[in-house]
Structure formats: C-alpha cells, structure tokens
Amino acid sequence: MPRAVLIANPSASQFTGGVYREVVTALRQGYELETLWPVSGAETLRETRAAAERGIDAVFAMGGDGVAHHVANGLVGSPTALGLLPVGTTNVLSRILGIPQKAADAARSAIGYEALPTRCARIEAELDTGHLTRIATFSVGIGFDAAVVQAAEQRPHAKVRFGGIYYATTAVGRLMADWRTRKPNLRVTDGTTPFDAVAVLTQVHDPYTYFGRVPLRIVDHEVDGLAALAVDELAITRGTQVLTRAVLGRSHDDRAGTQVWTGFDELEVTADPASPLQADGELLGNAEHVSVTDDETALRVLRPS
Fold it and tell me: What are the angstrom distances between the C-alpha of 92 and each of 96, 248, 250, 280?
C-alpha cells in the first residue's frame, strides 16, 4: 500500500474535527497514513521535505492555500505528490485544478487520481533579508497586490471570517490610502519589452481568483504558459478599469498604461525602492529584484487529468 502524510491546519476557516475524521477514514482506504500538525509555515515546509526524503508517496495539505503553498514548496523536485484537501477560505489552487471543494470528497477522489506534473512559477528573489527561491502554484504579485496581502495579514481573524470580501475591502482601503497616487518604482521586462509599473501580477493558471467563484483573467484567450500584467498607475479610474476587465475576462493588452506578457520564458522585475512580494497569497518580504520563470516539472499533484 502506498504511504502518505496528512498535514492539517486546524485554524483553517472550514476545519472541524468531524471533517478531519472523515478525511482520515477516507485516506486510509488507499494509503498507509501518518498525520502531522505543524504549527507554522516553516515547520510545514520542514516536515514536508522530510517526508519527501523518506520516499513518502503523497503529502496531503488539509487547509487553505497557505498550507498548500508550503507543502508544495517542500515537495519541489521530488517524486512525492501533493494532495489537496480544501478547508480554507477561498481554496484557489483546488478550484483551479478541479478538486472537490468538500475535503472528505477530495480525500475519496484523491485515491483514484494520478500524480500529474502541474505548472508552477519559479521565483528567484533578492529580498532586503537575503536571497529567496520559491515556487508559486497560482500567482506571484509585486507591488500593490502584495501590499494588499501584507495589509490583510494584519487581521488574520477577519481574513478567515470574511474571506474574499475582506480581501476586496482591504484592496480598496490600500488604494484609497496611498497607492492611487504612487509613482512607478518597478522596471519590468521579459528581455525585449521593458515597462515601468507600480504593480505586477503573474498568473500561473487561467483563471485564478482570491474572490471565491469570481474568476480573474489577464487575457481573453487560453495561454500556453504564464501570463503577467503590469500597471503604471492606480488612480481610481485606472484601478476600476483593470479590475472590471479582469472580472469580465477581457484582455488588458490594448489599454494605455498597461502591459501584458504571455508565454514568456522569464520575467524580471527590479524595484527601487524595494516592494512587497507575494506568492499564492503568502507574503514573502520586500524585494529589490525578482525573476519569475515557467516550471512544468517542479511539482506533481494528485488531480483529475
């Protein structure tokens, strides 16, 4: 019987003891199962790496996108598969990949899934605290997007309770407070097309969203690879236009003040001064230089084909 480790976050918004017991019972139908309860993202990363080094077949992340992010990064480059058991607020990655949104159903389904290579974005960043290597499973944000995450983290209980509504109101608050008058401090390029921006968002899969079932899109067509959007200013009119077009699924590449890159090999961002950086809604720090590349071999996920 294959071996699996279940990493659970009991503080996730939809976590209950009853759901946890259902998940354990379901997974034990197909796996020799260990259970772990890490108390931080750093501990989750360490425990996941240790499981991969022991040759565990799958590590299941029972929580929200934060737990999934840390487990995924612990599995990078290993044959151990990521299993997703969504009990978080928005569960972006599991929605994108077609995983059932009830954790017990996801556990039962996972037994029949294949471990499939799944696109990620590889991040190499120079932070004000040193060098960082990380993968993102659905988004990378530099500037405004990451500043919203930074602000949201100041009230974690509101984040759990109100989910996408809290992110939306936090975004409006940061925009009105100071970002609508910010001048571009980011130089962004794919090696051929440079652009000065206040915000850069890279989308790993189409679509993705922080706002539950409301999808956000950078372009209006399917992209083979990563897609990125940069905006040169966020005055009220521009910010409203960008968000409206993203929700309606309209492309931004024909709009003044925006730049879109699709299917690129590498996107480089230099920030002066340093700007906040986020991956999958997890704040990584303040970055002076960021490189984002497409990686289709770093991670395998138990998911529908």
Answer: 6, 18, 20, 9
- Amino acid identity for residue 261 in this structure: W
Which pLDDT tens digit goes with each residue over 165-186?
555 565 555 555 676 678 999 9
CATH 3.40.50.10330 fits 3-112, yes or no: yes
* DSSP per-residue letters across 226-290: -EEEEES---HHHHHHHHHHHHHT--STTSTTEEEEES-SEEEEEEEEEEEEEETTEEEEEEEEE
Please calculate the CA angle 118-123-125 and round it to the nearest 5 degrees.
170
- What is the percent of the chain where pLDDT is above 90? 69
Residue in the block written with tokens 């990078």: 76
Which amino acid is residue 103, in one-letter code?
A
CB atoms under 10 Å from CB of 102, counted, come to 17
C-alpha distances in Å from residue 141, one per residue of 35, 197, 204, 276, 291: 32, 12, 11, 8, 12
Q: What is the pLDDT of residues 30-78, one digit of tens each?
A: 999 999 999 999 999 999 999 999 999 999 999 999 999 999 999 999 9
Around Cβ 20, how many Cβ atoms within 10 Å? 19
| Element housing 105 (H / E) | helix 103-110
Pick the CATH number of 120-295 from 2.60.200.40, 1.10.720.60, 2.160.10.10, 2.60.120.200: 2.60.200.40
DSSP 13: T
Per-domain boundaries in the chain: 3-112, 120-295
